[in-house]
Amino acid sequence: MAMRKSAAAAGTALFFALAPGMVGGVVPWWLTGWRVGASYPAPLRAAGIVMVAIGAAVLIQAFVRFVREGVGTPAPAAPTQRLVVGGLYRYVRNPMYLAVLASITGQALILGRPVLLAYAATVAAAFVAFVYGYEEPTLARRYGAAYEDYRRNVPAWYPRRPRRRRG
After folding, report:
1. Predicted TM-score of the model (pTM)
2. Which of 92, 163, 81 lies closest to 127, judged by CA?
3. Which domain holds residue 145?
4. CB burial class (10 A; 0-12, 13-18, 19+) of residue 68?
5. Is residue 69 part of a domain?
6. What dihedral angle (degrees, nearest 10) is formed by the CA atoms of 86, 96, 124, 158?
């Protein structure tokens, strides 16, 4: 049964709060109380602010794209009707995971809390295991040749440079 965009938007908002909201916000708060630890140099703190801001912007853009382009949600229980390959997905297959990791790492730099770097490494390992163990095989079954073509042409974790237009 086809999902409507309004239902996709509601499901996506709920999933946003439950998944990246917990992993990138609530758990770092549980680990640190968002209290400043070690005194990191100002440039590192500034880099952390930039990482959190970029991570949040990328995450929001990716979630909106799932509703608009895919007409579905990022949640495995309510997948998109169409394969999402536009926007940042043209350059990397997993911008949401990278955005969450940037946000956690940014918080570590802002707060001077190495525990968040260890947490980010653990989350990264879980993301990689999930992507290769569940997500990619599921997408290949759901979208077939279209996903295989996308997978061949777009890197999983390291964004490719945008191609210059000739003209």
Report:
1. 0.90
2. 92
3. 5-34+42-153
4. middle
5. yes
6. 30
Looking at the structure of the chain, the number of domains it has is 1
Helix (H, G, I), strand (E, B) or coil at 4: coil
Output the six-digit token pair for 26.
Answer: 């609530």
Amino acid at 151: R
Inside any domain, residue 107: yes
Residue 159 within any structural domain of the chain: no
Q: What is the pLDDT along the chain (167 residues), one digit of tens a residue?
A: 456 878 878 888 888 888 899 999 999 999 999 999 877 789 999 999 999 999 999 999 999 998 899 888 888 888 889 999 999 999 999 999 999 999 999 999 999 999 999 999 999 999 999 999 999 999 999 999 999 999 999 999 998 876 665 55
Going 28 to 95 to 137 to 20, the CA torsion angle's sign is positive
Amino acid at 7: A
- The reply to whether 114 falls in a domain is yes
Nearest to 138 by CA among 62, 76, 66, 71: 76
Helices (H), 36-135: 42-68, 95-111, 114-130
